[in-house]
Every structure is written in C-alpha cells, then in structure tokens.
Amino acid sequence: MSWVKKYGLSAAAIAISLVVFVVPFIFIIFMAVKDQQQSAQMDFSWPTSFHVVENFVQVIQARDFMLITAYINSTVITVTSVALLVVLSALVGFVLQRRVTWWTPWVDFFILAGLMMPPAVVPTITLMQQLGIFKTIHGLVLIEVAYNMSFSVILFRNFIATIPRELDEAAIIDGARPLSLFFRVILPMLKPVTVTVIVVQTVAIFNDFVNPLYYLPGRENATVQLTLYNFQSQFVTEYNLLFMNILLITIPPLVVFLFFNRQIVAGMSAGAIKG
Questions:
Q1: Which residues contact residue 30 at a Cβ distance below 8 angstroms, ignoring those fewer than 6 apart?
Q2: Which of 240, 265, 98, 74 is nearest to 182 (CA)?
Q3: Residue 189: φ, ψ to 5°
Q4: Torsion sign across C-alpha atoms 237, 239, 244, 250
Q5: CATH code for the part of the protein at 56-274
Q6: Are 105 and 169 in contact (CB under 8 A)?
Q7: Which of 77, 87, 119, 145 has its CA 20 to 30 A from that of 213?
Q8: Where is this chain's protein located in or outside the cell (predicted)?
Q9: What is the DSSP string of 193-232?
C-alpha cells in the first residue's frame, strides 16, 4: 500500500503524459508516412507501406516551395523578435528593479495588463496601416515583441532582484556608466533567465498562428504555421501530405524544447526561489 501511495501519482502522471503528448505524436508520424489511400481512413494503424521520401518531396515542392519560404520568414521573425525581446526586456527589468520611483506601480500595472488583456486586433491593424507596416515582416516583429514583452520583463525583473546592489555600486565607483554597468556587469549574470526567455519565446513565436494570420496576410508572407491553413485547402483528401507538413514544422520546436528543458526550469525557478 505504501508503494502505491509513493509511486501511484507519478505513474498516473506519466501515463497521462503519454496519452496526451506521445500518442498524438506517434499518430502524426504514422499518418505522415502512409500513402493517400490508407491515410484517408484516419485510423491509428501501422502503415502498409512507407512513403517518407515521396511525401516529403511533395510537401516541399507544393505551391512553388511555399514551405521553404515559410521557414525563412518564420526564422527571420523568430530570431529578430527574440533578440529584441531579450535586450529590451532585460533593460526594462533592470530599470524597474533598481530605480523604484512614483511611476513604478503604474508600469507594473501596464505590464500585468499586457498579460491579462486580450489584444485589440482591429485597432492594431488600423494603426499598422497608418504607419505603413501592415503586411510586413518588421511589422509582425514589433507585434511579437509587444505581445510577449510583459512575460519576459517579469522573468528578468525577478532574477535581477537576486543580484546584490553592491555590484552596481562597485561598478559605479570604478567609473562605469549606466549602459556599461548593464551590458558589462549585469547582463552576463543573467544567463540562466536569458536562456529561459530565448527558448520559451522562440517556441512560442515560431509556433504562432494567430498573429501572422491577422497581421501578415499574403502568400509571400506565409509562416510555417500558416502552411497548415494553406495545405488543408489543397490537400483536403491527402491527409498523408498534410500530416507530413505538420511533422516537418513540429520537429524543430520539439528538439529545442527537449535540449533546453533543464535550462528553462532552472531559469524560471532561480528567480522565484531567490526572489
């Protein structure tokens, strides 16, 4: 009975995780390697024949290599957005933590509002059209940075709170200016939370479907998640190609998450425990 109490919940959690995450992924793999006739049955069965290369080539070549274009667009958007998020969020978190003034509670309010309030799509599109950045890559980059900054600022601020102020004072005594203090003293010490922000935001932005759909319409602006929307209309009865496309855009974020899983947990827990 003691063994059941000790390991029962762990076994149940593992079983639920397998059902929720592993089983659907296996189903995607099976569907992606089947032929068109067998995939139309939409069942969890072993493939009678494997068409990995054939399905892969058809998906890559579909619509004038749209998936390649989508990968390039998603990579540019993700890398640029994450780089801006890390620098800007770390700077904001540093200022909020080190310089507490009368406007700090107001800034905290707007940061929390950014986490809780849903985005206003129509006014945002109108504003982007007036600024001339609607349907542009850099316009979507600004959207991704704005929508994800609140979470990143909170992580950086909590972690910076664990860094002693004496380090700031010693650097200032040695002649360091504010930007030099941040980039040469503080930023190198933010490696755990920086890795956390990079991995979490990379996966989130790369997998984003809603924002590119609203703010970056157009075939030439397709991102990897929008290729699912496009392929579904073309391959409405060719589920093998649709699931091969799903597999190709699922593997990169999955690999990133598996490799950096420990860093994510360490970065998020370090600020919470020490703060």
A1: 44, 45, 46, 47
A2: 98
A3: -85, -5
A4: positive
A5: 1.10.3720.10
A6: no
A7: 87
A8: Cell membrane
A9: HHHHHHHHHHHHHHT--HHHHHHS-SGGG--HHHHHHHHH
Cα 135 from chain centroid? 21
Question: What is the C-alpha to C-alpha distance for residues 54 and 49, in angstroms, rounded to an integer?
Answer: 12
Helix (H, G, I), strand (E, B) or coil at 175: coil
Amino acid letter, 157: R
- pLDDT (tens place) for every residue of the chain, 275 residues total: 465 666 667 777 778 877 778 888 888 899 989 888 888 888 888 888 888 899 899 888 887 888 899 999 999 999 999 999 999 999 999 988 888 888 888 888 888 888 888 888 889 999 999 999 999 999 999 999 999 999 999 999 988 888 888 888 888 888 888 888 888 888 888 888 898 899 889 989 998 989 999 999 887 888 988 887 765 655 566 788 888 988 888 888 888 777 776 666 666 665 544 44
Calpha distance 72→80 (Å, rounded)? 12
Domains in the chain: boundaries: 56-274
CA separation (Å) from 190 to 92, 110, 154, 162, 175?
A: 14, 24, 13, 10, 22
> How much is the pLDDT for 232?
61
Specify burial of residue 207 (Cβ count, 10 A radius: 0-12, 13-18, 19+). middle
What distance in Å separates the CA atoms of residue 250 and residue 252, rounded to the nearest whole number? Answer: 6
Q: Which two tokens stand for residue 38?
A: 């067998």
